[in-house]
Every structure is written in structure tokens, then in C-alpha cells.
């Protein structure tokens, strides 16, 4: 196995373990057992457990950004629904890692993971602006879109923990919320446009 493949395997093992318990409760021994490697091999690729936790959470954020990429075709609502479905898929696939990444006060949160989360939020806002064909957004529109990304994050955290809403209803409901928020913003701006 190549060094990068071995490193990826350790990250994958950690993410699999995050699916059954919070990342802060996963130990080096748990990871090496799941990856079927020795402790010395683990330390060959990661200087400490925290470094692996950060890399695993970065994998989640990279997956979220990848889920938002390549949605350049179709009308805005179709593109947004596809983007939200991509976010739901990644969040569900990396459930515990996603919860740890966004949970306030996570013991494994760092400035680096916070920056990675901000990159996902910024990509979501850029995607929506592109779908709306807006190149010079007003401050109120930017505030609206940032608020909506917080709604999506909060909804996904609740949904992952409670599963009280059917998955197939989640993306439409979230896009409908954005539509309502955009209408309210347009009304407050008075002109009915966002540019």
C-alpha cells in the first residue's frame, strides 16, 4: 500500500469509528485495531491523535465542498436542491464527524477545522449567488444567504440526531425556506431585485 493510501486508510478507519461514537472518544488503539495496523505505523503517518482527528474532519468538509461542486446545469431551484441533497448525503455518510465538526464546544474543534467549515459556508453562498446570476450582492442578500446556511447546518444536526423528518422531504423543505427568505429580502430592499 502506498504511503498516501495507508494514510487515507487510517482516516477512513477513524471516520468509520466516528459513526459509532463521538470523535473525542476514539483512541489510537481503536483506530489501529480498525485499520489492522500497529501503533508505530499509526505514528509514522500522524504525529498524534489530534492530527488524525483534524484530517478526518477535513475529509468531511472536503466532501461537503465536493458535494457543492459541479452543479452548474439546470434552473436555480434544481441546482440548489441537488446541492442540498449532496450536503445531506455527505452529512449522513459522515454523521458523527459532521456532528463533531459543527457542534458548539467540540473538544476536537480547532481554528483549522473552523476555517474548513467557513470554506463550506462560503462555497454554499457562492453557489447560490451563481445560481441566481448575481455578481454584486447587496449586504442584505449576503446576510440572508449566510443565515440560510446556518439554518441548513442546524437542520442537518437535528435531523442526524433525531431523524424525525423523512430524508426525501428535507432538501425540498430547505430550498423552500431559502425561497421564502429571498422573497422577504427582496421585499425589504424594496426593488424586488438583489443587484
How does this structure look, described?
The protein is mainly α and 195 residues long. It is 74% helix and 0% strand. The protein contains 9 helices and no strands. It is elongated and about 65 Å long.
Largest sheet composition: none
Spatial shape = elongated
Low confidence ranges: none
**What portion of the residues fall into strands of 2 or more residues?**
under 5%
SSE-based structural type: mainly alpha
Q: What count of helical segments does DSSP give?
A: 9
Overall pLDDT score: 82
> Which radius of gyration do the C-alpha atoms yield?
19 Å
Number of strands: 0
| Distance linking N and C termini | 53 Å
Helix share of residues?
A: over 70%
The helix/strand order is: HHHHHHHHH
Concise synopsis of the structure shown:
With 195 residues, this protein is an all-alpha fold. Helix content is 74%, strand content 0%.
Q: How is the secondary structure organized here?
A:
Blueprint: H1 3-18, H2 28-35, H3 39-45, H4 49-68, H5 76-93, H6 95-102, H7 111-131, H8 139-162, H9 167-189
Features:
195 residues; 9 helices
Amino acid at each position: 500500500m502506498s504511503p498516501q493510501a495507508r494514510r487515507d486508510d487510517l482516516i477512513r478507519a477513524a471516520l468509520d469509528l466516528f459513526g459509532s461514537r463521538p470523535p473525542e472518544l476514539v483512541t489510537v488503539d481503536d483506530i489501529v485495531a480498525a485499520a489492522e495496523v500497529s501503533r508505530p505505523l499509526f505514528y509514522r503517518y500522524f504525529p498524534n491523535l489530534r492530527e488524525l482527528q483534524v484530517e478526518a474532519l477535513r475529509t468531511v468538509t472536503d466532501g461537503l465542498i465536493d458535494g457543492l461542486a459541479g452543479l452548474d446545469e439546470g434552473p436555480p431551484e434544481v441546482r440548489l436542491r441537488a446541492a442540498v441533497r449532496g450536503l445531506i448525503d455527505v452529512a449522513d455518510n459522515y454523521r458523527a464527524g459532521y456532528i463533531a465538526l459543527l457542534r458548539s464546544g467540540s473538544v476536537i474543534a480547532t481554528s483549522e477545522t473552523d476555517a474548513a467549515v467557513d470554506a463550506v459556508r462560503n462555497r454554499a453562498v457562492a453557489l447560490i449567488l451563481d445560481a441566481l446570476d448575481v455578481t454584486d450582492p447587496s449586504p442584505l442578500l449576503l446576510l440572508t444567504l449566510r443565515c440560510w446556511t446556518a439554518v441548513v447546518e442546524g437542520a442537518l444536526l437535528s435531523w442526524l440526531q433525531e431523524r424525525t423528518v423523512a430524508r426525501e422531504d428535507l432538501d425540498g423543505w430547505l430550498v423552500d425556506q431559502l425561497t421564502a427568505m429571498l422573497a422577504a429580502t427582496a421585499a425589504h430592499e424594496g426593488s424586488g431585485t438583489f443587484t
